[in-house]
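In response to reviewer comment 3 from the previous cycle, which asked for concrete evidence that the modeling workflow produces usable outputs, we include below a single protein chain processed end to end. The sequence was submitted unchanged, and the resulting structure tokens are shown without manual editing.
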Amino acid sequence: MRGFIKRFFPFFVTFILGLFVASFFVAITAPKFQFNRGKKHREYHRLKYENKCLKEKNRQLQRELEAEKFHNDFEIMNLEVPPPPMPPMPPPAPIAPRRAH
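The workflow returned the following structure tokens.
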């Protein structure tokens, strides 16, 4: 037991002295890890919801645009246009004179 104290005591004193000297240059306290998960988590879900709403609004506007385009195309195609007039009749072929055989 006495041999253990003789070996352990110098190590312990050196360790304490080292901590004392180091405390002047570095904070020896345990680091404080602060996780603001709640704030970032809420922001993430808010942005995700906003993105979802914007995508749905984009789809709705796209459908309205396609419906309007289809309606306009249908109106253009549904116009009643009279058929073009008949071309004028070609002039009659000239009659060739008869030859005697």
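The mean pLDDT is 83. We consider this sufficient to address the reviewer's concern, and the full set will be provided in the supplementary archive.
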